[in-house]
Amino acid sequence: MAEKGLLYAQPEEFRDLAIAVLVLAFGFSVVFPGEATVSNWFSHFLLSVVLVSFSVLVHEIVHRAVAERLQATVHTKVWPTGVIATFVTSLLSSGRFVFAAPWAVSITPRRFIRPGQAYAKGHLGPHDSALIAAAGPLANFGLAVLAKLLPVSSLSQQLILINVALAAFNLFPFFTLIPIAFSKMGPSGARLTEMPYVEGEFVFFGSRPLWIFTFVFVVVGGLGLMFIPSLLASLSLALVLAVALCIAWFYFLEGAAPYEMLKKEKFS
Q: How far apart (Å, rounded) are the C-alpha atoms in residues 211 and 205?
């Protein structure tokens, strides 16, 4: 059955996203300018709620837009371990380090066979899931780039920090070696495709070329956006290092040239 638009979500998804937004807003409001008063903190917390809500909304819409194109469905679920990690890291680091991945996603095909596709490639493949999963973090990185174009202020700096953290942490792949949640058990047991995972898992295991490039580009570019005044210099440095590390990864860790891995992905 088709979804009811890009903003459609189950009631429990709205609940889980609201929890994630509040937890992230708390993490990003531990450090705030001005006097250390409750009223000053609370005003900064409310500002963080607005900025995080906007960033998460864009993240989710882009996820669902790509999923719509690939005839898939994306559902978001709060990750209790991630929520705890967000609280702990923000408090222990006095707000200097915020674990910004308190949710996970499940990606499922709407149909077993996609119209216009051969049977062997008709279902939702790992590469398709990787594209859907990468879309959200890349949207956050795009928001950080746009925020860099704004006049320098505490608002623009906060928006950059939030979106760089969301992009980088959601692309990191090894948070879910142990399943973080289980789908409802049916007569034949749980369906693996319905189990939620951190987005980086889908990207890493679905397309390593996509993962190594986007992860390095987002991390290096994000650090550049926060610490290098020039936007062009930040993006150029990120692009060069992403390409270089992508090539090095395949030659030294995969034992194959990058174009061979891309060809293998395309025709597998």
A: 9
Q: Using CB atoms within 10 Å of the CB of residue 74, give its burial: 0 to 12 exposed, 13 to 18 middle, 19+ buried.
A: buried
pLDDT, one tens digit per residue, over 85-112 is: 999 999 998 888 999 999 988 888 876 5
State how far the alpha carbon of 2 is from the alpha carbons of 71, 108, 116, 184, in Å.
Answer: 9, 12, 18, 21
3-class secondary-structure state, position 162: helix
Strand, coil or helix: 254: helix
Angle formed by the axes of helices 208-227 and 154-171, nearest 10°: 160
Domain-by-domain residue ranges, the chain? Answer: 11-178+192-267
Confidence of residue 127 (pLDDT cuts 50, 70, 90): confident
First to last CA, the chain: 28
Tokens of 234: 């930040």
Alpha helices in the chain (DSSP H): 11-28, 38-69, 80-92, 126-148, 154-171, 199-206, 208-227, 231-249, 258-267
Listed in sequence order, the residues at least 6 apart from 162 whose beta carbon sits closer than 8 Å to its beta carbon are 24, 28, 48, 51, 52, 55, 100
Q: State phi, psi for 106 to the nearest 5 degrees.
A: -115, 140
- Global model pTM greater than 0.90: no
What's the rounded mean pLDDT across residues 30-34? Answer: 83
Tell me how far apart the alpha carbons of residues 24 and 98 are, in angstroms, rounded to a whole number: 8
DSSP 8-state code for residue 76: E
